[in-house]
Amino acid sequence: MTTAIEQSRLITVLDDIIQNDPHSMKAHIAQIIMDHDEPETYLSDILKYGCISGCVSELVYYSDTHAFYDQYYYEIEELRQSFEEETGCVIEVQYDLKNFFAWFSFEHTAYQIANPGSITNSFLPLNKFIDNSKLC
């Protein structure tokens, strides 16, 4: 159950992200989250089920994931490099690269939004959405 205080805090965090860098991938993702009736529940669903579940309707079709990847290529590449440096794992994509990295970046950015100011574990823990056998 979400309290009004938690919901209010999340809305404030999302609004700050959008206002501070409105053209960034993080702002785009923050806006998608904020546009839902229950942003905290939606954010929780993204973190629990991942983009593969279809819960992010903006990233269901290849045409959508490819456009997202193309639009935010440089930010996605920075995120990939940071992930590989922090974890020591190299991501080897076994299927559609643009689709994989669109989902990867969306999920990890959502995780960072849900955990603002976290110095350690700035990346979503490896889970069922990433085939761990293809890392390291």
Folded structure, characterized:
Helix content is 60%, strand content 0%. By secondary structure, the protein is an all-alpha fold. The chain has one domain (4-134). The radius of gyration is 14 Å and the shape is globular.
Provide the fold topology.
Blueprint: H1 4-20, H2 25-34, H3 39-49, H4 62-71, H5 73-87, H6 97-114
Helix pairs in contact: 1-2, 2-6, 3-6, 4-6
Distance between the termini: 38 Å
| Strand element count | 0
Structural domain tally: 1
**Oligomer classification:** single chain
Order of helices and strands: HHHHHH
Q: Output the structural class.
A: mainly alpha
> Shape from CA axes?
globular
Specify Rg, calculated over alpha carbons. 14 Å
Beta-sheet strand percentage?
under 5%
Task: Fill in the keyword field for this structure.
136 residues, mainly alpha, 0% strand, 6 helices
Short synopsis of the structure:
The protein is mostly helical. It has one domain.
